[in-house]
Design brief:
The chain is mainly beta. The protein contains one helix and six strands; from the N terminus they run αββββββ. It has a six-stranded antiparallel β-sheet, with no helix packed on it. Strand 3 and strand 4 form a beta hairpin. The two termini are 23 Å apart.
Length: 99
């Protein structure tokens, strides 16, 4: 996702979608992410502006996926949040950039 946005950010305006083939433990499926607005996030690594993308669950047991990509950091993910149907979630957040 980051490489696609980094190569052509203007080609994916807010509200557009990005589709790609994803492989799971038992199948292969087309995942479609919706491009959201740029958000200012207060992360453990500092304040960063990032575009939010999300994938809504397709089935009853699918997780919702959200990812925030920072232009300032070469469209690397600064936050990834996966939410299970029962409300359990994992929320990974950017802490620092090593130089």
């Amino acid at each position: 996702l980051g490489a696609m946005l980094g190569a052509n950010a203007q080609g994916f305006p807010e509200g557009s979608t990005i589709a790609f083939q994803a492989v799971g433990p038992r199948s292969s499926d087309s995942w479609v992410f919706t491009v959201g607005e740029i958000e200012k996030l207060q992360m453990p690594g500092g304040v960063v502006n990032a575009v939010r993308l999300w994938r809504d669950p397709k089935g009853e047991y699918d997780a919702k996926g959200e990812i925030w990509l920072s232009r300032e950091l070469g469209y690397l993910p600064v936050r990834i949040r996966l939410t299970q149907p029962n409300g359990d979630f994992v929320d990974q957040q950017w802490r620092e950039t090593l130089r």
